[in-house]
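pls ignore typos typing on phone
zinc ion + seq
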Amino acid sequence: MDLLAGRRERPVPAVGQVGHYLIHRRDEERGPEDEEADRARDQAGADVLAGEPPVHGGRSTRSRPGRVAFRACSRGGETAVVQDAAEPAVVGVDVGGTKIAAARVAGASARDLTQRATDISGPEAVLDGIEAAVREVVDATGPVEAVGIGLPSQVEFATGTVVASVNIPLAGVPLRDELGTRLGTPVYIDNDANCAALAEAGLVDEPPARHLVMLTLGTGVGGGIVIDGRIFRGSSGLGAELGHVVLDANGPACPGACPNRGCLEAYCSGTALERDATELAQDRPESWLGQVAADHGGRVTGRDVVNAATEGDEDARDLLERLGTWLGVGIADFVNTFEPEHLVIGGGLSAAHELFLHTAEHEARSRALPALFERVRISLARAGNDAGVIGAGLLAAQELGLSGDTSRPTAREEVG
Ligand SMILES: [Zn+2]
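k done
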């Protein structure tokens, strides 16, 4: 259990393979023993690659999932990720309601990130924006073999068709086919919470997590589950809605597009926090939050609550502690169900983790089956704003490797 894990810098070992990366120490810190270790490691890496049979129709340049090799090289003290020839070249795209971000993804890191505003005037405009973002990255970094895309939408994974989408006008659009035709490369589409979970699985302490549960606390509560290194989606891709697990059958109405009551999202989302704070402000207009509401047209936002709690307001602190308690109830359920190695908390609300996460951990410990809880590590998300892009890129690399898709022309020929 390490609640502080997300706040630490990842230690850079002197030499050695760290998951997807081979890390070199900065030049000025290197000594003769490093050179020796480098030679041994390079030979070991060469042996692994040489011993690996060609895969996917004789295309020997692509490694199998989980057999990826990258090298982080020191350039004038700066650490830059250099993609190994064995790894498929991919672009990850994170499509949000306000911006589209895209980057070349190597291992669990993004580079040459590009961002543009999302034009939500219609499906064609969104498609144009995604295509332009991908082409910009390709122009800057070279051809790619696959593109992964994360969306805040319900996606039928096998076909890449958007089933439902609240903030982006893509409902009913066969996005995988549309973009595949435009880009001439395999395209993989998934829910952004799933992509974020995959990114976190690649970023937790080495080796990458095989079993991970992620909760994204934002306006709503998103969930992502990684089992055996792959995203768990349910039969068609709509599953893993952890925010709609019920904590109290008679609880408040769920604020999401959900008919249920007492869901995790009804207690641990920004919307729930806002609801409770606004209610408190109405009941006690003389309170700190009551004053905030009076200054803001009767409404108290989640950010207002966090600010008030940070300033020491007891009401605001109580609201966040209560959120933490309910979060702990949910965490205990997920620990008992999935027995993950890691349970990761992300989303905008996680920035205020000091105000609720210890409470959540304490509550979860008191409720989960002890033998399971002792094995899980709870931490904050590490990918930050790049989680969607990194996860989408990892998805593309993983799915391309699994599908062995050589039937379509690759982007080496058609994109860029
Ligand atoms: Zn719900």
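The longest helix spans residues 314-338. Residues 1-83, 406-416 have pLDDT under 50 and may be disordered. more later
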